[in-house]
Amino acid sequence: MSNVIASISHPYWASLGRAVREGRTSKGLSQMKVAGFVGISVRDLAALESGFVPPEVVDNLSRATVDAFDEALGWEEGTARKHVTEAVSAASTPSSFTLTKSNVGLDRSTYSRDAWIRLGKAVQAARMALKMTKPVLAYAIQSTGKTILRLEDGLVYGDPRTAPPANYNSEKYMLKRLALLEMALEWEEGQARQILEGKTS
Length: 201
Fold this sequence. Notes:
The chain has about 200 residues and is mainly alpha-helical. Strands 1-2 form a two-stranded parallel sheet. α1 runs antiparallel to α6. The termini are far apart.
């Protein structure tokens, strides 16, 4: 069977990722076992299950066969493919959510785009003052250089459908890393949230 993953951009992985995680844990299977069976790394499987699949991981996942998840998890043939194709189909229907000036507030983010842009500028200024590279900061917050690039550009979204296809940083993903960000940049505890909330000058 042909592999449909290669043509799918990361916002459409969430449904399959949730199903894989639920199927794997219900059967008591380790990520290592499932990843090995499907032919991807544990890191890539973890990204898939989290629903946050950075573009650099998509290339690795694209070499896997969607149908292998059916066999690995004991699913009925076509189950994994169905999760993916339904997500793509839903996104391509006329009722699909499209970001416009009128619905920009419907991103389902806790913080506004302006707030993330404000934090991104503060992060960049602090990183440069410390003469720290993006990869070093990325390592400190257990992420990637591309994540730092997107953060500094304020490209953080609560809903992947509102993001440019190659520039999605999950707000949930970033909020979990604020404490690490503060330690890496030598900020006070809670300073990142204060910046997001516009409580600092």
